[in-house]
Write a structure and sequence with these properties.
By secondary structure, the protein is α/β, with parallel strands linked by helices. The protein has 11 helices and 16 strands. It has a single domain, classed as Alkaline Phosphatase, subunit A (3-Layer(aba) Sandwich), CATH 3.40.720.10. α2 packs across α7 and α6 packs parallel to α7.
């Protein structure tokens, strides 16, 4: 059993936090992170073509945040901000690592992850699913605070698509239909094994990142409500239901804080809930994501919270719960525990970045775009697109059922829609769809937000350039199994030869 907080720290925190759980109780922490799940893809956020009953119930029993943001609208950097409470450019992950593009960067050894924080407080720690903070040895989850790991180290369309356990490649090729199911089973086993001691479970699912895949239990033919995308979301919802049920069965519900969110906005086929743009964009559709916090007995039920907050706030909030002085970590996020319990949120701006570029700031009802927002193009209606990226090892799953480029996740702009340009101001209270530029009406607000952004940029450390190498990938590393594993380094070497 790992060391506990000191008696002095416990007493000090107990006096400080009489309204919340004492640090001595050391709540379990579960973070469930979907991949490319749009704000409008859940029925508790307005989806009407299919239902997500378990996540709806989770929201009813906890707090549903409607203005919850990621720090960057792409996979790897978003995860860096979540796990460190710091902007991605500080962490060594300003852009996505990609083994098949030779982008071999990853999280800095100097960064403290949420897993390292909790490991130091006596927690068992496990990551299950997509890591995407580096695929070379110095970046492995087990080198950054996690006792164990099971999953694919990057996106499920990057090559080679192989499952890893701790620091070994244990399965190649991979049948992706069962990824959600297998990740869920692995997570449930971890909870069961560690029910008597505090634990941190980080469950970053592969879905609904392309290629979409669902098991037979959730994939059914016929009707709009039974298409592949809907099946994938229903299976994610079922996974959340299983995890919450396991916590209840083991009498752990009132000892466990659970967060469900997504790493960025949706890809084609998803749903932004009417917000403009999609994944990769600083429009709301790219950075506003679901945020559901659940902790029976500690978080008031049925809350719908509209003030801005973000995934970058998770680390400092956990510090608060454990009575840890977070100033030592030079965090960019804020403690939002009081906000989750009915008080106003911190007086702050929420920023969106792309590498070293500060794209937008949201404070209160106002959002200023410093750079012109970009959005991916809309495909032509009924034009068939087949993704040639993968996955490798197994033929692309349901290739003609994958989302098409004309299935744009947000509504089309109209003739009256404000065109994309730099220094645009939008009123999120009356215009969350970012249709009407009100810059000329509020020069004082523009000046204030611009000054805040300039002050934020002044805190930036020098950003190391991340350049792709000339790596060439061929076929996969050959069949790998749990019975005959090889090192991840060896598997990557074989694919690069």
């Amino acid at each position: 059993m790992k060391s506990h907080l000191s008696t002095v720290a416990l007493l000090a925190f107990a006096l400080f936090s009489s309204g919340i759980v004492f640090a001595a109780d050391r709540p379990n922490i579960v973070v469930i992170y979907a991949d490319d799940l749009g704000w409008g893809s859940l029925s508790c956020y307005g989806q009407t073509e299919y239902e997500t009953p378990h996540l709806d119930q989770m929201a009813q029993e906890g707090a549903r945040l409607t203005s919850f943001y990621v720090s960057t609208p792409s996979c790897g950097p978003s995860r860096a901000a979540l796990l460190t409470g710091r902007y991605p450019f500080r962490t060594g992950v300003p852009s996505n690592p990609a083994p098949d593009a030779g982008r071999d960067h990853g999280i800095k050894a100097s960064e403290t992850t949420l897993a390292e924080l909790l490991d130091g407080e006596g927690y068992a720690t496990k990551a299950v699913g997509k890591w995407h903070l580096g695929h070379l040895p110095e970046y492995y989850p087990t080198r950054h605070g996690f006792d164990s790991y099971f999953g694919i180290l990057y996106s499920n369309d990057m090559r080679p698509v192989m499952l890893c356990r701790d620091e070994m490649a244990v399965e190649y090729p991979v049948v992706q239909n069962y990824l959600t199911q297998r990740y869920t089973d692995e997570a449930l086993s971890f909870i069961e094994a560690n029910q008597d001691d505090p634990f941190f479970l980080y469950l970053p699912h592969a879905m609904p990142h392309k290629p979409l895949a669902a098991s037979e239990d959730y994939y059914k033919l016929g009707g709009v409500a039974a298409d592949l995308y809907a099946s994938v979301i229903r299976e994610l919802d079922g996974s959340v239901g299983q995890i919450l049920q396991k916590l209840r069965e083991l009498d752990l519900a009132e000892k466990t804080l659970v967060l469900f969110s997504s790493d960025n906005g949706p890809w084609y086929g998803g749903d932004t809930g009417g917000h403009r743009g999609m994944k990769g964009s600083s429009w709301e559709g790219g950075i506003r994501v679901p945020g559901i916090f659940w902790w029976p007995g500690q978080i008031e039920t049925g809350q719908v919270l509209e003030e801005p907050a973000g995934t970058i706030d998770v680390f400092p909030t956990v510090c608060r719960l454990l009575g840890i002085d977070s100033s030592q970590y030079k965090l960019d996020g804020y403690d939002i525990w009081d906000y989750l319990n009915g008080q106003h949120g911190p007086d702050r701006a929420v920023y969106a970045w792309n590498g070293k570029n500060l794209m937008s700031a949201r404070k209160g009802r106002w959002k200023l775009h410093q750079t012109a927002p970009r959005a991916r193009p809309r495909g032509k209606q009924d034009e068939v697109w087949i993704d040639n990226r993968g996955p490798d090892g197994i033929t692309l799953i349901a290739p003609f059922e994958q989302s098409q480029l004309w299935e744009y996740p947000s509504p089309p702009d109209t003739a009256a829609t404000a065109p994309s340009r730099a220094m645009q101001l939008f009123d999120m209270e009356t215009d969350p769809w970012e249709q009407v530029d009100v810059t000329k009406n509020h020069p004082d607000i523009v000046a204030n937000l611009k000054a805040l952004m300039e002050a934020e940029l002044a805190t930036m450390e020098e950003l190391a350039q991340v350049n792709p190498s000339n790596v060439q990938y061929y076929l996969g590393p050959g069949r790998i199994t749990e019975e005959n594993p090889i090192t991840i380094e060896e598997a990557l070497r074989r694919t690069r030869e």
